[in-house]
Amino acid sequence: RYANENTVLFFNESQPLLTACIDYHSKNLPSWKSHNAVLAFDTSDKWDTWAAKNKVKFDQADFAQFIEDNLVDIVEPTPADMLAISRTLEAKKNVNFASGIRLSNGETQFTYSENIQGTAQNGTLQIPEEFFLGIEVFAGATAYKVKARFRYRIDGNGKLSIWYDLYRPQ
User: What is the pLDDT of residues 12-21, one digit of tens each?
Assistant: First the structure.
C-alpha cells in the first residue's frame, strides 16, 4: 500500500526471511530506513526431517528405517520400490590392479580399475541414481518435487554406507 520507487525487498536465504524496506535510500538522498515489514518463513516438518539427514551416511538397517518412516514423502520411484531398494540393496566391489616394470630403463606402469555394482531384490530392481520427494518446503505452502541423489559406497572394510544428497537445497 505504501510502496514507492524506493521500496526494496531483501531476502535472507539462511533464515529464510523477507524484509521490505518501504523508505530505502533514493539515488540522491539517504534515508533512515525506518519503515520495514518482515516476513519469516517457517520450514515444514517434512523439509526439516529430510534436510536434517541430508548427506548423513547410514548403515543399511538405519537407512531402511528412515525410508520406511518417511515413505509417504517419496513420489518417484514408487514408495514400494524405494522401500524394497533400501531393504535389499546389495553392492559388490571388484578391484583389478596390475603393475609392470621394464628392466632395461626402469619404466614402471600401474593400472587400477574399480567396479561397483548394486542391485536390489536379487537383481530385479534397478538402483536409481536419484529419487524425488513430494513435500512442502515451507509450512503451509504447496508441495513440489524435490530431487535427491541416491548414493552408496563400500569402504575398504567392505562396509556399505547409504545416503542421499538433496539437489540444490538452498
Answer: 877 778 888 8
Beta bridge partners of 145: 134
Cell of 148: 535427491
- Please write the tens of the pLDDT for every residue from 26-68: 878 777 777 888 888 888 899 999 999 999 998 888 888 898 8
**What separation in angstroms does the CA of 12 have from each of 15, 39, 116?**
6, 11, 41
**pLDDT tens figures, 111-166:** 555 555 555 555 556 777 889 999 998 888 889 899 999 888 777 777 778 889 99
CA-closest candidate to residue 128, choices 169, 170, 74:
74
Tell me the whole-structure pTM to 2 decimals.
0.65
Residue pair 83/120 in contact (Cβ under 8 Å)? The answer is: no
Nearest in space to 151 (alpha carbons), one of 134, 132, 164, 167 = 164
CA 153 vs CA 127, 156, 159: distances in Å: 13, 10, 8
3-state percent helix, strand, coil for the chain, nearest multiple of 5: 20, 40, 40
Crossing angle for the helix pair 79-88 and 60-69, to the nearest 10 degrees: 160
